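Weekly puzzle thread! Below is a chain. First person to post its structure in token form gets bragging rights.
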Amino acid sequence: MNMKQLVKIKNRIYANYFMPSRLEEYKSILKNVIESGYTIITVRDYYKGLLNNTLNGKYFINRHDIDTIPTSAKEMFEIEKSLGVKGTYYFRLSTIDIELMKEIRTYGSEASYHFEELAQYAKDNHIKSKDKVLEDIEKIREIFIKNFLELERKLGYKMETVCSHGDFVNRQLKCINYEITNSKELRQKLGILCEAYDKDLKEHTLYTADAPYPKFWNPIDVRELIGKGDVIYMLTHAKHWKKNIIRNTMEDLKRFYEGYTW
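Winning reply:
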């Protein structure tokens, strides 16, 4: 094991088990955005504004991917409610919290699906070839449709946008879960307006995302973008803002197991 790998392990241990909460920092960022004259908006509402040509002013697209820790998502949502702002939350099958998603929806924010059926299919069937997994894309889409409709049934509302999750398998295959929703027919069938990485959604926005310790942002700290454009698009992951020792340990063990068995 080389020095670079050792440093990476050290940083991951600190982030998972020792890093203090950054939720006050998150609240401060939102306050700064509000004071700078931006409307903090969901992915759904921003995209509808694009379609209907009703956007007028400065907007801050506030997106959360809930990869591992729904409890931290709840705390971020409470911060947003205290400030009277909105956000979009995308939940994986492994992080779905039906009651929280309903609460988010009732408030006026967005809670929807963070999908990964392509990566899961590759893991389940021990597929290590991009060409092979794409041969089965229609089978994978059928699994996605089943999961999507079942989640809608449990939630009792229409999900209008979705978001592709990035898994280690996607990086190995060089094939992203977005391939599933790269189908006009599928979107029409399910009433999906957009996917969170769609080009027309991100076009003309200043985009940045949070990152693991010690970098924190990629490519740039969101605070450096405030005031420099009319539309800022921020992606955050709840796990980067407050540690959950038990959940982080479970996810690390799961990742090791999946890598070994794949």
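Puzzle host: Confirmed. Bonus trivia for everyone else. Residues 26 and 71 are 15 Å apart (CA to CA).
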